Amino acid sequence: MTTLFVRASHPKPWAAFRLVCRRALFTVLALESSADDTCAAVVTSSRQILSNVVVKQHDLHEGFGGIHPTVAIEAHQRNMPGAVRKALENAKLTMQDIDGIAFTRGPGIGGCLSVASNAAKCLAAALNKPLVGVHHMQAHALTPLLTAPVDKTPEFPFLSLLISGGHTLLLLATSRTSFDILATTADESVGRSFDKVARLLGLSWGAKGPGAALEDFCRKDIAGAPDVGSFPVPMPGKLAFSYSCLHSSIERYLASAQGPLTEGHRVALARAFQNAAARQLCEKLILGLEKLSLRNINPHHVVVSGGVASNLFLRTRLRAALGRYSPDVKIDLVFPPPELCTDNAVMIGWAAMHRFISGDHDDYSIDLRAKWDISTISDVHSHIPA
Questions:
Q1: Using one digit for the tens of pLDDT, what is the confidence trace for 73-129?
Q2: How far is CA 355 from CA 18, 87, 177, in A?
Q3: Quick one: which of 42, 71, 88, 281 has the fewest CB in 10 Å?
Q4: Angle at CA 38, nearest 5°, toward 33 and 42?
């Protein structure tokens, strides 16, 4: 009988790893599957994106009106091997050229997270590569440190507005691992409200999803669209977000309508919603800057990331709001490219890079953290249970 001894963690540091760290370039294969996008990418320490593979699942979830966890997990399991293979092929590399493997540790849908986690841990263990688990929202916040021109890279401390289907957060970032939560949502996220209103208005998701479908719908050239009024910003003067009341206002409007709405009426309602959603983000952002100023903290950069950050109407409104707040001292508004606003593995690889370079990596037995407060990143170590 053969006895197998399984090592739960890898030796650290390895001679090979020390050799890599002395080289000028460190290359990371990164995996992401926290929601409904299956992602793999290859990124280098010289800020090169060698590949970026994203496999969408919109067609699988549209009939459910949102992400169906079981369907998403099964799709991730089908898609991840091909995504990894394609990421390596697009980068023109093999696994022997990869110096470290990163993955999304959390937060996210537990079963979905497990697909990228298991793939990353198995690859790292089999090939004796260092492993790093990454906080999903930290990765969104740090993306502009990769994508912005060198002379326009955000400097700490900067303000970070993270807006997605799962989160609405206003943060003060003081380092790559230190984030002070200034405001979060009291109920649902801005991205989820976009998705719900898109469904209420009967919009097809298309290739880009419900939120993007609503933005496109608002741009329709409709003559004689009725005036549907405006929707108020909740909790005025309070540094907190709330979007359930906004989508509920749309729901009540539709319920009180006499018969089906014309397309022009639906466009007007969509525009009123989008305007109110953007107005809330702008007002809370300015309130956050004002409160920081009272603490003698005056960030020169505001980073906006997450899936909703790809909304061009919102980008325009945020720029205008910052211009009115600080007309004399410019506050730079920084966005990742639209394709890196939504979930991707490029941001995961980049967020892990500083840990790889410093020789700080995780055990192969690292647990997932489906719920993970971003302000606790620096306190969380791989041996702490999720």
A1: 998 899 999 999 999 999 999 999 999 999 999 999 999 999 999 999 999 999 999
A2: 13, 22, 10
A3: 71
A4: 95
348/362 Cα distance (integer angstroms): 15
Half-sphere exposure of 223 (CA within 13 A, CB side): 0
Lookup: tokens for 66: 């949102």
From the centroid of its chain, how far is CA 328? 31
Rounded Cα gap, residues 267 and 215, in angstroms: 10
The span from the CA of 72 to the CA of 67, in Å, is 7
DSSP state letters, 366-381:
PPP-SS--GGGGGG--
Backbone dihedral angles phi then psi of residue 44, each to the nearest 5 degrees? -115, 165
- Round to whole Å and give the CA distance between 318 and 311: 11
CA distance 114 to 77: 10
Q: Residue holding tokens 């741009």?
A: 219
Which 3 state secondary structure label does DSSP give 155?
coil
Rounded Cα distance, 386 and 319, in Å: 39
Asked if residue 161 has pLDDT above 80, the reply is yes
Cα–Cα nearest to 196, from 267, 250, 253: 250
Question: What whole-number distance in Å separates Cα of residue 150 and Cα of residue 130?
Answer: 28
Sorting pLDDT into bands at 50, 70 and 90, what band is 65?
Answer: low
Mean pLDDT of the chain: 89
Taking Cα atoms as reference points, which of 64, 66, 79, 65 lies closest to residue 33?
A: 79
The C-alpha atoms of residue 215 and residue 231 are separated, in whole angstroms, by 17
Largest CA distance in the chain: 82
How many Cβ atoms sit within 10 Å of the Cβ of residue 245?
18
pTM of the model: 0.88
Segments in the chain forming alpha helices (H): 15-22, 58-61, 69-91, 110-127, 136-147, 190-200, 210-218, 244-256, 263-294, 312-325, 346-358
Kindly tell me if the per-residue pLDDT of 42 is higher than 80.
yes
d(CA 378, CA 276): 35
Q: Is the pLDDT assigned to residue 55 strictly greater than 70?
A: yes
Q: Is the peptide bond before 107 cis (omega within 30 degrees of 0)?
A: yes
Quick check: 119 and 348 in contact, CB under 8 A?
no
